[in-house]
Amino acid sequence: MADHKPSRIKPTVVIVDDAELFREALKAAFTQEGFEVTGLAADAMAAIDLAREHEPDLLMLDLLMPGMSGLEVVGTIIKASPSTSVVLLTASESAEDLLAAVKAGASGYLTKDTPLPRLVESMNDVLAGGAALSSAMVGKLFAAVRDLLPRRGRVAGRRPELTGRELEVLRLVGAGSTSRQIADELFISQNTVRNHIRSIHVKLGVSSRFEAAKRAYSEGLIEGPWR
Asked: Which residues, including other chains, have CB under 8 Å from residue 46's CB and lie 6 or more apart?
């Protein structure tokens, strides 16, 4: 009896690029490396339809195309086919575009000057759950992340943004007023006072009235003796 070996399942790929020659070159490169090209298209909206229809393992998507850009549809493609890894192809070496691609959920960002054999080879990393990034973009990614870190620190160090009413409640809390006294002073219900205090605790990151008053004083939000 002949020994029948199971055929190897080929990874599938859809290629979307408005440049026909580049599209065909990519198709040839992927086919040569054992991929099955299940769809070709020239615009971003067609990419969504092909993703939904074929649910490919990979979708190679041009960043800049007439009408809608690749960046604008990455999220929609992933929703249409959650198992598909989207890799953006572009001539742009902009760090802003790179970060936007990462935020949108792309699994790769490759410049079009990447040699096709290397480009296709890097897709094995994506299929294994990794990511693909052109060498020209690695340094820009680290620089962009480095620039974001101090900015995040400044955001974390901003004074809490309390509403005017919350500041009034906090001022009375700092003066030692009870919830009933605060309610009478501001002509609101005690339940509303408690809601304001809960909100103040969350915004200030504290768990008691004393901590709230002390934090508010240290931030210059109210005047008081809490040091």
From this structure: 16
Please calculate the CA angle 116-91-43 and round it to the nearest 5 degrees. Answer: 85
Contacts 24+ apart (CB under 8 A), 170-179: 170/200, 170/212, 170/213, 170/216, 170/221, 170/222, 171/222, 173/197, 173/200, 173/209, 173/212, 173/213, 174/213, 174/216, 174/217, 174/222, 174/223, 174/224, 174/226, 175/224
User: Does the 164-218 domain belong in CATH 2.40.160.20?
Assistant: no
Residue 23 corresponds to which tokens in the numbers above? 């599209």
Judge if pTM exceeds 0.90: no
Q: Two tokens at 87?
A: 């890799």
Q: 140-198: per-residue pLDDT in tens?
A: 777 776 766 654 444 444 556 788 888 888 888 888 888 888 989 888 888 888 888 88
Domain ranges of the chain: 12-140, 164-218
- Calpha distance 179→166 (Å, rounded): 13
Q: Which CATH architecture has domain 12-140?
A: 3-Layer(aba) Sandwich (3.40)
Coil, strand or helix at 224: coil
Place of tokens 């009034």: 168
Structure tokens at 162: 């309390």
pLDDT band at 227 (very low <50, low <70, confident <90, very high): very low
